[in-house]
């Protein structure tokens, strides 16, 4: 049988095997045991923290007829088929390569059919944030009202890219980064089961390099095992991860603090000759300086996070440094790290960095000596500051005695400079809607308007929350905005218009033209339209005596457009 990577061989098959996510696994286990599962779930969190593995375990547990306390048996045909990926009722879809509307519509059509073998159809959509806007809209209705035997599990590393309308229809579980101690314990268990010898310090280096991802940790461990011929040593772990030993970091920082530039340059050149990456060297130096700062403030917390890797040399060095010097060193390291992104001569920047760090001690000494200057210099400085205060006080008194008139003028001038935004209006389209507008159509769109707004993204809702339909026909809708600026933003935002059109087509099952107007302009347009209709009616009346007891057509039309309660008829 072909060799399988460690992260695949040791992939969790039960909830209890998922490490570092106890709250989530306990909740899902109880939901299965009590038969209180939801129709849609959202798993979010960093890479390699168990999102997809948990989704597959949940799929097994809910379909296993022999589950106990919410855990799958992993022995029945259904469990084995899901583990092997051969069960047609459990589909794992990569949204990064299947992010179009057609793929989601295909899912929407197939959910109508009952499962063939299992009790539930499970759709696991990985990296769901990669779906297009159209695909999200196609998925929305299915998530809202799926068939009883269908469950969706959405997994993502970037939940902020998912529309709020999707999130609100799911149960969300946030997977957290796994602690280095938990990763270390898991690797020790795996190596103990496989009978592979290992160095404790090597596993600690790997656990820290994984940055909270169990999959990353096992991948690095796999590389170290292959590199070291089935043996895990500290040197091999440092070589694979590209990390620098704590001893080298300590010796380098000691050299620059003591202004020993030749020794510092020698250490840098030796690290580069050993194949260490220049960017990784700076990252390790920043982390080491950060550890020195944290140890000065909270030794117990740092000892726990560093897995007990703090030696006496580190502790002695931390006690010798002032926090201000460490702040300066971290600033210089960050600046140099940023500069190295745009060059291919990284070794030069490391050499310049060594010289810069070596000069910081001089600055620190200068600061210390200036703090003990003779009191005569301090008195002179105080006198200078007092003179500046008196000058500022005199200027303030003179300003207070000046009249307020210039300020009023400036304010008036600023008001005059403020221009009212005039939105360009297509009067033909507006009149086309008004000619066929009815109160029934307007009521219909006013009722569905809140649902349409909820289908938009948060920035889109911020624009449309100050709008509402003011006139409607079967072919189009006039949308009034409270603020002209937001109306202009809506007109210029094609993505917003597409989202509104797609949402309306789903809610009312027809394509409609949308016309955006500020409320001020809408009132003027409505008044002009009614005046024109009044003029037409007056010119078309054959006999005033015949129509004296009938309601004028213009009033009837206005009542149809805007409702009887909004129309007041006044006699001249």
In terms of structural class, how would the helical and strand content be classed? Answer: alpha/beta
Number of extended strands: 8
**Alpha-carbon distance between the two ends:** 98 Å
Largest sheet: number of strands, sense, barrel closure: 5 strands, parallel
C-alpha-based Rg, rounded: 36 Å
Contiguous runs where pLDDT drops below 50 for at least 5 residues = 362-375, 404-419, 542-549
Residues in β-strands, percent? 5-15%
- Mean pLDDT, to the nearest integer, reads 81
InterPro entries: AAA+_ATPase, ClpA/B, DNA_pol3_clamp-load_cplx_C, DNA_pol_III_gamma-3, DNA_pol_III_sug/sutau_N, DNA_Rep/Repair_Clamp_Loader, HLD_clamp_pol_III_gamma_tau, P-loop_NTPase
Family: Belongs to the DnaX/STICHEL family.
Catalytic activity: DNA(n) + a 2'-deoxyribonucleoside 5'-triphosphate = DNA(n+1) + diphosphate
Enzyme class: transferase
């Amino acid at each position: 049988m072909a060799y399988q990577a460690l992260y695949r061989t040791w992939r969790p098959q039960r909830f209890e095997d998922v490490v570092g996510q106890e709250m989530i696994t306990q909740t899902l286990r109880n939901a299965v045991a009590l038969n209180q599962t939801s129709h849609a779930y959202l798993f979010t969190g960093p890479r390699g923290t168990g999102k997809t593995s948990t989704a597959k375990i949940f799929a097994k547990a809910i379909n296993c007829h022999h589950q106990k306390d919410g855990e799958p048996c992993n022995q029945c045909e259904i469990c084995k088929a899901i583990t092997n990926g051969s069960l047609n009722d459990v589909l794992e879809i990569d949204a990064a390569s299947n992010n179009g509307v057609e793929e989601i519509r295909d899912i929407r059509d197939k959910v109508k059919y009952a499962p063939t073998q299992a009790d539930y159809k499970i759709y696991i959509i990985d990296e769901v944030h990669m779906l297009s806007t159209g695909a999200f809209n196609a998925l929305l209705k299915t998530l809202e009202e799926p068939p009883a035997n269908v469950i969706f599990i959405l997994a993502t590393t970037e939940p902020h890219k998912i529309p709020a309308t999707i999130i609100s229809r799911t149960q969300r579980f946030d997977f957290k980064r796994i602690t280095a101690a938990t990763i270390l314990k898991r690797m020790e268990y795996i190596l103990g089961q496989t009978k592979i010898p290992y160095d404790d310090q090597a596993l600690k280096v790997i656990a820290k390099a994984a940055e909270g991802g169990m999959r990353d940790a096992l991948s690095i461990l796999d590389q170290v095992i292959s590199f070291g011929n089935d043996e895990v040593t500290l040197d091999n772990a440092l070589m694979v991860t590209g990390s620098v030993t704590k001893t080298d970091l300590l010796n380098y920082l000691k050299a620059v603090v003591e202004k020993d530039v030749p020794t510092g340059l020698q250490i840098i050149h030796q690290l580069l000759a050993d194949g260490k990456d220049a960017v990784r060297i700076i990252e390790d130096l920043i982390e080491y300086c950060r550890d020195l700062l944290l140890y000065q403030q909270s030794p117990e917390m740092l000892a726990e996070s560093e897995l007990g890797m703090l030696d006496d040399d580190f502790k002695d060095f931390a006690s010798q440094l002032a926090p201000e010097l460490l702040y300066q060193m971290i600033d210089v390291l960050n600046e140099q790290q940023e500069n190295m992104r745009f060059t291919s001569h990284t070794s030069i920047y490391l050499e310049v960095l060594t010289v810069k760090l070596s000069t910081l001690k001089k600055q620190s000494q200068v600061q210390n000596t200036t703090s003990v200057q003779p009191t005569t210099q301090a008195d002179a400085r105080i006198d200078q500051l007092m003179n500046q205060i008196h000058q500022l006080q005199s200027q303030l008194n003179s300003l207070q005695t000046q009249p307020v008139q210039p300020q009023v003028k400036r304010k008036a001038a600023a008001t005059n400079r403020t221009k009212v935004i005039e939105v360009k209006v297509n009067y033909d389209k507006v009149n086309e809607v008004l000619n066929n507008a009815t109160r029934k159509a307007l009521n219909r769109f006013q009722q569905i308007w809140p649902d349409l707004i909820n289908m938009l993204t948060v920035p889109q809702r911020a624009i449309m929350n100050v709008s509402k339909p003011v006139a409607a026909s079967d072919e189009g809708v006039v949308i009034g905005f409270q603020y002209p600026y937001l109306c202009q933003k809506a007109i210029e935002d094609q993505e917003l218009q597409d989202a509104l059109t797609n949402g309306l087509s789903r809610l009312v099952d027809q394509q409609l033209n949308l016309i955006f107007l500020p409320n001020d302009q809408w009132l003027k347009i409505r008044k002009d339209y009614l005046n024109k209709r009044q003029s037409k009616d007056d010119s078309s009346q054959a006999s005033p005596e015949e129509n004296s007891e009938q309601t004028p057509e213009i009033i009837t039309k206005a009542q149809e457009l805007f409702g009887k309660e909004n129309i007041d008829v006044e006699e001249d």
